[in-house]
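R.M. (postdoc): so does anyone remember the format we settled on? I'll just put the structure tokens first.
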């Protein structure tokens, strides 16, 4: 019975640690940025139907905020894509602002194939002008903390002051306007953001053993980013 008790306790501890490690999703501070130059037209379809989209952009990089630089040129298209790591579980609302036109897509999972359009604007907005059209705001969307969701924003500009930004209201916040442009702390450019596994716990020992109790001790795991459980 004593051996069985120890086995059950160790199994519970291992399962708890495994759940803590696999359920984590934290932003890495940046999201992917692509830009296509010399594409005429002011509709998103002018970008997505171009022969160079999506695999041959004119400019690539990363952003530490879900917002593209403003007023950078004419006849261009922009794509910002990557993953969102929601900080808490609950109801979220999203907004997109863009000039000339913009779309916001969000997946129900980490797979891009499952993305759906949740907000858009077909007329130009000023930077961070969230309520020029009702379509700029998404419906209520349930997100789960610890889950990574694929996200993508598109913008097409012909002439004028181009801009693209995505904001959100988190659970418990007012849904009349975004509380913020989505920060890098909730964004990731890669599906796998932590490729180095933690070390295994070691030096497991039992002490103060009696017929009814014992105390376990071990050396904890270490990791280049951090261990959460």
């Amino acid at each position: 019975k004593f051996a069985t008790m120890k086995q059950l306790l160790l199994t519970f501890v291992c399962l708890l640690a495994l759940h803590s490690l696999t359920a984590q999703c934290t932003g890495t501070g940046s999201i992917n940025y692509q830009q296509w130059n010399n594409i005429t037209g002011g509709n998103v379809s002018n970008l997505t139907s171009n022969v160079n989209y999506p695999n041959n952009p004119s400019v690539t990089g990363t952003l530490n905020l879900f917002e593209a630089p403003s007023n950078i040129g004419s006849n261009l298209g922009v794509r910002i894509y990557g993953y969102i790591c929601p900080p808490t579980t609950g109801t979220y609302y999203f907004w997109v602002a863009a000039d000339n036109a913009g779309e916001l897509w969000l997946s129900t999972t980490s797979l891009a194939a499952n993305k759906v359009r949740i907000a858009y604007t077909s007329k130009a907005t000023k930077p961070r002008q969230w309520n020029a059209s009702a379509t700029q705001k998404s419906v209520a969307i349930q997100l789960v903390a610890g889950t990574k969701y694929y996200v993508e924003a598109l913008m097409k500009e012909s002439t004028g002051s181009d801009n693209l930004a995505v904001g959100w209201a988190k659970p418990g916040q007012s849904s009349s306007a975004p509380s913020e442009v989505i920060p890098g702390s909730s964004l990731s450019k890669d599906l796998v953001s932590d490729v180095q596994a933690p070390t295994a716990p070691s030096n497991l020992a039992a002490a103060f053993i009696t017929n009814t109790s014992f105390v376990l001790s071990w050396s904890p795991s270490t990791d280049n980013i951090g261990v959460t459980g």
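R.M.: ...and that's the designed sequence above, right after the tokens. Also worth knowing: The CA atoms of residues 1 and 59 lie 66 Å apart. Residues 11-23 have pLDDT under 50 and may be disordered.
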